Amino acid sequence: MSSLLHSLIPYHPFKALYVLIVTLSVALRAPFWFLYFIPRFLRQHPSWTLRQSFMVQLLKVLLHHNSLIRAYPHWSLLPGAEKERYERISPSQKDIYHGVLKDQEIKPVEVGGTWYPTVYGPGNAKRKAVILHFHGGAFVVGDGRKSDFSHAASLLTSHTDCWVFALQYRISSNPGCRFPAALQDAVTAYQSLLDRGIPASSIIVSGDSAGANLAVALLRYMTDHPDVLPKPKAALLWCAWINPGYCLNPKPCTSNRNYGTDYLVDAFAEWGVRAYAPAPLDATGPYISPMNHPFRCEGVPMWVQFGEMEILADDIVKFAEGMREIEGNEVELHEDKGAPHDILLFGAMLGFQDTTENMARAMGKWLREKI
Fold first, then answer.
1. Please, are residues 309 and 45 in contact by the beta-carbon 8 Å criterion?
2. What's the CA angle centered on 125, arms 119 and 127, to 5 degrees?
3. DSSP 8-state secondary structure symbol assigned to residue 83
4. Is the peptide bond before 13 cis (omega within 30 degrees of 0)?
5. What is the pLDDT along the chain (371 residues), one digit of tens a residue?
């Protein structure tokens, strides 16, 4: 596809025409994919089922085309289907926005988030802590709401004694929401939990994919500004997109050894990093691409999970090993054999239910030992 046609796709009427063509194309090709993957030797991975092979291929194609048309959720702070479980949060009046959070254009704003399974209640004898979770989506899609996060939230709540608060941070596909908008929102949400009487020792920071990147950035911010925010009890990092700066290179996904066994594509990664960290921001810096910038985070044990067959596997292992080398850090690296990217979010849809349940069970056992 020429660069001119590529640049026209996100705009009407070209977008509508492109969507129609893609819909017809996928509908015609889907039966062929299903038949193609019936022989086990033709599947992306020998251990995958027919459903897993078909669904990974389908998601890969849909993600590619969605990235070209730049489709993203409409920004809204209305409760919607979440009803009373959705909570709006105003920027803190306390002096907590320092360093990289001070920006001439990007300022802290009101954000929202969804509680799972119910609104936080300190009188609940069963639940002892709160998981502050940041959703994935390359910083350009996702919102942590019921429609796309309820299954992941149920995994977290059913395998821990925790509430989950999934933050709807600003995504960079919206105007004026580049870095450090999402990190400002993460700081706002963390402070809001403290303000309602939840001690830092009862907060676990969590994130999947780009959200795990954001969780690491929040931990770094706490380390850089120790007098601003107390550190959480632990951190859960699921398939962390730990090196977005690399995606500025040509074909960052197709050149990866695991490209054939994952659904991540070049167009999605490039869209994400260029929206989140547009020039002149340094996309390779420590707050955006922490893989090559390990730091001391003493007192916060980290659960670092990744899928064996995902594109980000090598980056995640390198990050974990780098963090382990620093005195005082505690890092638990968990590999899910045969799994693609972010099965916390997509495992059930892709047919990796057993792997996802085992992963969540292992995390729950680890977390109970820490809290």
1. yes
2. 55
3. G
4. yes
5. 445 445 545 655 767 787 788 889 999 999 999 999 999 999 999 999 999 999 999 999 999 998 988 877 778 899 999 999 999 999 999 999 999 999 999 999 999 999 999 999 877 657 889 999 999 999 999 999 999 999 999 999 999 989 999 999 999 999 999 999 999 999 999 999 999 999 999 999 999 999 999 999 999 999 999 999 999 999 999 999 999 999 998 899 999 999 999 999 999 999 999 999 999 999 999 999 999 999 999 999 999 999 999 999 999 999 999 999 999 999 999 999 999 999 999 999 999 999 999 999 999 999 999 88
Tokens of 254: 């197709």
Region of 209 (left: φ > 0; alpha: ψ -120 to 50; beta: rest) is left
What string of DSSP letters covers 59-112? HHHHHHHHHHHT--PPP--S-GGGGGGEEEEPPPSSS---GGG--SS-----EE
Q: How many CA atoms lie within 13 A of 1 on its CB side?
A: 11
